[in-house]
Design brief:
Layout (H helix, E strand, L loop, with lengths): L6 H18 L6 E9 L7 H13 L4 E7 L2 E6 L2 H15 L3 E9 L3 H4 L7 E2 L1 H4 L1 E8 L1 H22 L6 E5 L2 E6 L2 H14 L3 E5 L6 E7 L1 H26 L5 E5 L3 E7 L4 H9 L1 E8 L6 H5 L7 E5 L5 E5 L4 E2 L3 E8 L5 E7 L1 H12 L5 E15 L5 E14 L7 E4 L5 H13 L6 E9 L1 H54 L4 E2 L1 H30 L4 H33 L3 H33 L9
Parallel strand pairs: 5-23
Antiparallel strand pairs: 1-3, 1-4, 2-3, 6-12, 6-22, 7-8, 8-10, 9-10, 11-12, 13-16, 13-19, 14-15, 17-18, 18-21, 19-20
Helix pairs in contact: 1-13, 2-3, 6-8, 13-14, 13-16, 14-15, 14-16, 15-16
């Protein structure tokens, strides 16, 4: 018998290795030290910005490889890191505070490889460098927001039940409702207790007034804090995805803190701005009956508040909030019919119903869109936590022309960049509570480069040892195994370069080293089985055939059990563990392909068509 493969199997092996090599090739070209310039707070990066930066660098005698403007960002490539550092200082000083200049490493991938979507491996924080943030959630503000919502809900409920009250306000850690009569207070208590079982109600009389005080139960307090933390984690993950960071790490630490790691981040200031921004929208009716001049002088009606528009003009709005940004499920920037920037908003079902019911009864009245943002201040509380300043401005006032539904738009935005930034924040979600960055660590590219070199040296030494052993012990068949081993590494790197979101870390390099040994294990099983068949007196071709056929079951069993373990690691692990699991899964599949199909193709090609009396194994 002769061992031969059909033509399609050879073509399949060649195609897999060729495609893997093409997508692994960008890793051979390295990266250039670069500077990335982007606008701050909606500032546009224009061709004039590019010219100004180039002129500054030219006057300083700094030679650049290239400078290009794309996606409202300027990317300047340098020949060495010394020029990169000097260029950053010069460009930042020249362009001023309206622009953010950040150090970067730009891939040197040839254009023909970029045309097929090939790019270098994305490296993790330990290999590429990047930023580590430790963030703390302001739980006091989360509880304050719940209290404010309680007050709004109580006012609405009492009006609907026609229970007359003197006032509803926040007090201590709860909400106080004031009534003129004890009987009305008792009716309100009876109704609200059934409606809000997670609140604790008690009587709180003062003088001639009957008071009803509501406070959250201990269980409800725990739920609010847990929800605030988990929701902030989810929203930060969404914002990281919007930033386009590969394989980020976002996880909780303790009861109030969140760890965020951004490997290879290109724009640190932009990341801090997006991650820490607590922005949302509020929709309120304009108080048409209020005297704007009197309100600006300090005489604001009791049920209204004074705001400022973007032009500085005062606007009096009702305290009642029609809708908040929590009901926004999607937001996108665009242009209106007059080529002015706008943000298109989609609401969830409850938000759409609330907006439809309200606007149906208020056609012809003016509704304002209020942009709310919480910013950290230098002041701190007694416990040392940072205080936040609540900045609010009216970005749009429009007359309700008809009943609105789940989709509508807001206008009055200054620039397209600002519209995109607002849409990003609203699409990713509004943080339930403000967060502050309590710790920030930057891992430099030089330390990451040292980790890369150490990891590569470990992999090279491991491969050399395996190659030497296989060549000496299995002779020509050892060379076949070594060729499969090299193909295995190429396939792993090629697949990881192709898979979106796959990131190489130090544990990932360990996974590659592990799969190198596993790949050789499969070849050892096959070769030893062939040796056994030859010792039993089988012919060369028959021994090869039986060796591959009989070893297949053992190889499959061993690799499948390891693959199951890798899947479990990926499912329950985080960060580096996930990176190790991904590399291990790809390596297992690649080693099975190269050991079972790849080496068989080479063996059949070299020895399969010949009548041999002995074999070099």
């Amino acid at each position: 018998m002769l061992n031969r493969y059909p033509l399609w199997k050879y073509l399949m092996v060649i195609a897999v290795i060729t495609i893997s090599f093409l997508y692994a090739a960008p890793n051979l070209f390295g990266e250039d030290p670069a500077l990335q310039v982007s606008g701050s707070r909606g500032t546009q990066v224009t061709p004039a910005t590019l010219t100004q930066a180039q002129q500054t660098l030219s006057e300083a005698g700094i030679d650049v490889i290239s400078a290009a403007l794309a996606d409202n960002q300027l990317l300047i490539r340098f020949r060495n890191t010394d020029d990169q550092l000097k260029g950053k200082d010069l460009v930042a000083e020249t362009l001023g505070e309206d622009y953010i200049a950040a150090l970067n490493l730009a891939p040197s991938t040839p254009s023909w490889l970029e045309a097929i979507g090939a790019g270098p491996l994305k490296l993790g924080l330990d290999l590429r460098g990047g930023v580590h943030f430790l963030m703390e959630v302001d739980m006091d503000e989360a509880l304050n927001r719940v209290q404010e919502q309680m007050v709004q809900d109580f006012r609405t409920d009492l009006r609907e039940q026609r229970l007359r009250y003197s006032g509803v306000l926040t007090q201590d850690d709860g909400a106080l409702m004031v009534f003129r009569e004890a009987e009305t207070r008792n009716q309100a208590m009876s109704y609200l207790r059934g409606r809000y079982p997670d609140l604790v109600f008690s009587e709180r009389d003062s003088g001639d007034n009957a008071g009803l005080f509501a406070v959250m139960s201990e269980q409800r307090l725990k739920e609010v804090k847990e929800y605030a933390l988990q929701q902030n984690i989810t929203i930060i993950r969404n914002r990281v995805n919007e930033l386009g960071v590969a394989e980020p790490l976002v996880q909780r630490q303790g009861a109030e803190r969140i760890v965020v790691q951004l490997p290879g981040i290109q724009d640190t200031a932009r990341a801090k701005e997006i991650l820490g921004a607590t922005a949302t929208l509020e929709f309120r009716l304009v108080d048409d009956s209020a005297d704007v001049a009197a309100a600006a002088a300090g005489r604001v009606p009791p049920n209204s508040e004074l705001f400022r528009g973007r032009d500085g003009r005062p606007v009096v709005l009702q305290k009642r909030i029609i809708l908040t940004g929590e009901h926004i499920v999607d937001a996108s920037s665009g242009m209106d019919e007059f080529s002015r920037p706008q943000v298109n908003i989609s609401l969830d079902a409850p938000g759409g119903s609330r907006m439809a019911d309200f606007t149906k009864d208020n056609v012809g009245r003016a509704m304002a869109t209020v942009f709310t943002e919480y910013k950290p201040t230098d002041e701190r509380d007694e416990d040392g936590s940072r205080q936040f300043r609540k900045d609010q401005e009216v970005i749009n006032v429009a007359t309700i022309q008809s009943r609105l539904g789940r989709s509508f738009r807001i206008t009055g935005i200054d620039s397209m960049a600002e519209a995109q930034n607002l849409a990003l924040l609203l699409r990713a979600g509004a943080l339930i509570a403000p967060i502050q960055i309590v710790e920030e660590r930057t891992i430099g590219p030089s330390l990451g480069q040292q980790n890369v070199e150490n990891g590569l040296m470990a992999m090279v030494y491991g491969m050399l040892a395996v190659v030497l052993f296989m060549t000496i012990y299995y002779r020509k068949f050892g060379l076949v195994a070594n060729a499969a081993l090299l193909a295995n590494v190429v396939i792993i790197i090629g697949v990881m370069s192709m898979v979106p979101g796959a990131t190489m870390t130090l544990p990932g390099i360990a996974g590659i080293v592990l799969t190198i040994g596993m790949s050789v294990d499969a070849n050892v099983l096959i070769f030893e089985r062939i040796r056994e068949e030859l010792r039993d007196g089988r012919g060369v071709q028959q021994a090869i055939h039986i060796g591959y056929e009989k070893a297949l079951g053992t190889i499959a069993d061993a690799n499948i059990t390891t693959l199951i373990t890798a899947v479990i690691l990926f499912a329950v692990g985080t960060g580096p563990i996930k990176g190790f699991a991904v590399t291990l899964m790809i390596g297992i599949l690649a080693s099975m392909f190269t050991a079972i199909v790849g080496t068989r193709a080479l063996v059949n090609l070299i020895w399969g068509g010949k009548r041999l009396s002995k074999l070099s194994i």
